[in-house]
Amino acid sequence: MLPRLLIFLLRPFAKPIRYGALKFMKRFRAPDDNRPVIAASEHLLNEFILPSTFRLFRDEQFRNLASFGKLPRAEHDRIWNELVVAGIATLILCLDSAQNLVRLEDLHFWQKVQEHAPKQFQRELMKMGVLSSNAKLMRQLIDMRYEEYRGLLRQAREVNELENELFRSLSDDMRHLAAGLQAVGIGTADHIKRGKLAPGDPLIRFLTNWLFGLYKQLNRFVQKL
Questions:
Q1: How far is CA 98 from the centre of its chain?
Q2: pTM of the model
Q3: Closest C-alpha among 95, 96, 124, 121 to residue 218
């Protein structure tokens, strides 16, 4: 009875304790110690990206825009995968600008987190019992989609530079971010709709707004840690 009671009493303190431990690991990390990078990647996935993705996946408005009611269960699973990939792509985008978010001595750390995060997601899947071959396929999907979204980013930036006065007034980093989130939103919506995305589909704006909200959470965490 006592151990269960202790778990219940300590539960509200678990998150701050984990955060404090992670901050300590990062601050006093040794040059050849990769554990803080793994711990930060795990935290970003499990505290931000996956919970945010799950809330979106269960959101009624999102399901209406994605026509869930007309789709079989297998398609729901595929859409979930696309949303997780979009969340991880947003983390990678966030860390593209790490040099403007963190102290110079921490830059290499966050660059390593950026590189490691997709691999950590593969590990998280295997912890959940997913076959290693399937977990590896998901990591490969992340790599493939991110390369695709980088191409879309360039296109989105070119169009906005020509047509959007407000976009042109932003700093270079903010233009990169805005075009990146737009690219991920468009690409994810297109994959959800299996390439049948109509111009101006409201799913694009809905996903882009979600990605921007997730980005703000990730950005705040990276700056504070």
A1: 15
A2: 0.88
A3: 95
